[in-house]
Amino acid sequence: MIDWDRADELLREIGEEDFAEVADVFIDELNDVLGSLTADQDHAEIQQSMHFIKGCALNIGFERLAELASQAERCAANEQETGYVDLNALRDVFQRSKTAFASRFGDPAAA
Q1: Per-residue model confidence as pLDDT tens digits over 77-102
Q2: Which of 67, 65, 66, 73 shows the shortest CA–CA distance to 94?
Q3: What pLDDT, on the 0 to 100 scale, is given for residue 41?
Q4: Separation of alpha carbons 3 and 58, rounded Å
Q5: DSSP code of 39?
Q6: Rounded (5°) CA angle 60-66-68
């Protein structure tokens, strides 16, 4: 679910002092985009949102979320049915990723 090597790499890159703030920004942005997604968006909107989610997730190490977003992005790019995006699954993986991340690094929002 979490690429701990990537999360540790981010910690080393930016240092402990800034890590919580950067992690919080990524998590807030993911939360905002995932919260605004709807099943009736067109392919281009979904593709753009999934690309953004994938990028944020990869930066912070939310590997499974990035995988789901990448699959949905490819489907949207090929203009397949929009029902392929399981919003509940994306949101569930995001919540579980946040919980796992917080268990190792603490809650970024609390810093």
Answers
A1: 887 665 567 888 999 999 999 999 99
A2: 65
A3: 84
A4: 8
A5: T
A6: 155
